[in-house]
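Convert to structure. Protein one:
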Amino acid sequence: MSSWAKLLGSAVRGLESRFDELRAREQRRPKQIVAYRGFGTAEVLRVSGRVLANDPLWTAGEEDPWWRNLRATWRRMGSAEVPGAVVEVEIAGGRARAVTDDEGFFRAAVQPGAALRSDRLWHDGEVRLPGDPGIHQPVHVLIPPGEASFGVVSDLDDTVVQMDVANRFRMFREVLLGNARTRVPFHGVAAFYRALHRGPAGRRLNPLFYVSSSPWNMYDLLLDFLEHRDIPVGPLLLRDWGVSEYELLPSGHGLHKRGAIRQILDTYPTLPFILIGDSGQEDPEIYRDVVRDCPGRVLAVYIRNVTPAPPRVGAIRQLAEEVRAAGSTLILSDDTLSAARHAAEHGWIDTGELAEVAAAERAAGARAEPEAPTVVVNPEGGRR
């Protein structure tokens, strides 16, 4: 580990200890419920969230100074969790209770008491504290309707939002000093994801799921980013971060992602999926494993090339061969338009959507006519 990483790790551990001291002095009276967007089926709806003793954060602005963003990060990462709180979730006439764990998390499974509309993607409910009726929060749960053609599982950092995860100094600078409005998506991503969401019929019924190793403390920021950039919102499956003496970032990145993706695919056993990630970490390897372990479930794998070094490209070329052998397709490209063209060729998005993706790249100064993808294996592969 480099010296700067050790110093930053020591600083973060110090902040974490200070947070623990401050939280220990509080009475832990609940002040808010953070209800995460959930997903499920007509038989069971799964909802999760946290109960916190902090006041809600303010809405970020594009012109907020760095010190205000740093203060928000301090507040966000120093959340005061409320363990042992009883929450009640109500959706579609069904109710369930849950108790928060030591980190303030709750998870509830709700069986609807009434039939759910089959022509909509999102269903609304409420989470509340039975002992404090003044604290409640709306919750939204996704159920793919029967008309959905496929689902999408996407990474976030360096796939949707430009974060430069390979350079941890730049990444931490953005995390600490930026906000949801200062983060920038890759060119054409918003248009492409809207096209996938609409599908060839234009109905906005294909679900999107975001699986990331970002901490749950960043949930509000990531959701605000998606909404602000007009990127289709979906359930965010994040993870808890811990800081130890020997580790600045959490381990088990691949384990978390594989488990989350498998949970999604198991929840919807008849729905095929498109997987989208980047070359910076383990996305190609993780997605190769998903294609191999879930035969016939993955239409295509789209990987954004953020590490163009020849050894990494060569490794992904080999992974693409393994994906082809397992019955799907892996495309590695430097831009969004190449993936959009492949999706249009296979009938997953309307060909008319390509103009919007290309226009978005032109407006941002990207190539309007990109070169061929770096790697295309089995271009006719994937299920229609």
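Protein two, convert as well:
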Amino acid sequence: MMENKNRVIIIYDSIPEFRTYFESAGIKIYPAFKEVRGAGLRFKVLSILKRVCIKFNIFLKFWYSDWVRNIGSSETIICFMTKHYKHIEYIKSRHPLKRTILWYWNPVFRVANPLIFMNNGYELWSFDKVDCDRYNMRFNTTFYFKDLKLNCKQKKYDVIFLGYSKNREAQLTNLENILRNEGLVTYFHVVPLTNKSNSSFERMAYYDYLQLVAESSAIVDLVQEGQDGLTLRPMEALFFRKKLITNSSSIINERFYNRENIFLLGSDDLRTIKSFITMPYREANSEDLNYYDVRSWLERFFQESADI
């Protein structure tokens, strides 16, 4: 697969820091749209203009990033799916014979409906097996980066959570109260989906979040109803040797699952959660780390069978 990797371009619209991690693995990756640079009034005006253009699908070609100039030499294009997909239609109109993979690394209900792209020459892939069955998509796992290392930090927190509220405020507040009542030190950073909230928490850069992970013993993962695929949180826990507290019942079917490292909300006894946190982490095997590494994830798109 190493030779194929050099013929792949990945177009994403997500965590900016991921570009560095992909490139360290030798994979070409471009943001869907140009980054706005500069400062002051010019930066504010351009940022607003960019958001307006993307929202209303106007003057998009001006905002496309460098993939426009480099896509011609690639044989396969992998596009991370979001709610905005006009750039994907543009790619297909300009390069109809290229293999174009639409990668759903979020549940369908959070991004563009795959029915829009059926029978139009796209390959539809998802991290969520339920969505795969529902929309006849092909399955691939969530991925992470085994080359990504955390700085050594003194532990400050027993349990952390970072994420958007997504109507989970009550669940998160209840869980944090339980943890604190057990004498555990927590840090919950809940970001509102809109500016109407009175919350003082804003979106945190992924690099800053990883510093919190380095200072913690366990990570909370609360999946939304209707989601089956693995989020990034189980991957972070696996690759960084952290305990995981999750409500995802399907995690017991994952190859890396063990009760010493993963606490299943709604199943495991909450009265034992403090002892779960304080027990030593059970080391994962290298085969699991390699399986979920971004290189293996990319290789699976080139395997004959998608039933992984």
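The first strand starts at residue 8 and ends at 12. The first helix runs from residue 2 to 5.
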